[in-house]
Design a protein that fits this description.
Blueprint lengths: L2 H25 L14 E4 L2 E4 H4 E7 L2 E6 L5 H9 L8 E3 L2 E5 L5 H38 L5 H34 L2
Antiparallel strand pairs: 1-2, 3-4, 4-6, 5-6
Helix pairs in contact: 1-4, 1-5, 4-5
Length: 186
């Protein structure tokens, strides 16, 4: 393994951490409705747990209502039950062949809980980025120990890894601040 390999894999792993954070933040409910809230809802589709998006069309009806239209009519009751039991605080109702899922406005207390959750997700992402930095530095030390590079090269590479870490930690802070603002907006 070379210094370039270590840097490349470090950046790729840090990017994955950011993508994971974005996915986790998308699941956090804000005051407005968005189809991403239902992304992790599992539906019993002929005996196997299947993602809601694979058995139904999920759209926004208006700012506070999500529309779910199952591809098969007989799945209406199953999909409605899955949404109700997903522990999201949502109460779907069937109207014809569409399930309407109104999202209730968040209370001030619930908003503060959501902000705490967002901050926790952000802190977890920062920890992941720092762990990746630690792994990269260990890899660089191993390269130095194997005499595949000089101490100066290893030190420069460690500085570059630190700059990458700083860049991704700043990105995490920005994502968390944006989501926090979105949650607190009434």
């Amino acid at each position: 393994m070379t210094i370039a390999d270590v840097k490349k894999s470090t950046e790729q792993r840090m990017l994955k951490s950011i993508e994971t954070l974005k996915a986790d933040l998308a699941k956090v409910r804000t005051g407005r409705a968005h189809p991403g809230i239902l992304d992790h809802v599992q539906v019993d589709y002929y005996g196997s747990a299947t993602q809601l998006s694979q058995v139904a069309n999920v759209t926004l009806i208006d700012a506070r209502t999500i529309g779910v239209q199952p591809y098969e009519k007989k799945m209406l009751a199953v999909v409605e039950k899955a949404i109700r039991e997903a522990d999201l605080g949502l109460n779907p109702s069937t109207q014809g062949d569409v399930i309407r899922v109104p999202t209730p406005p968040l209370t001030e207390e619930r908003r503060k809980e959501m902000v705490k959750l967002v901050k926790t997700e952000g802190e977890d992402a920062k920890i992941a980025v720092r762990n990746i930095r630690r792994d990269a530095n260990e890899g660089l030390k191993k390269i130095l120990k194997d005499k595949a590079c000089s101490e100066d090269e290893e030190r420069r590479a460690q500085d570059e890894v630190q700059k990458l870490t700083d860049k991704f930690v700043t990105e995490v802070d920005k994502l968390v601040a944006d989501k926090e603002k979105e949650v607190l907006t009434v």
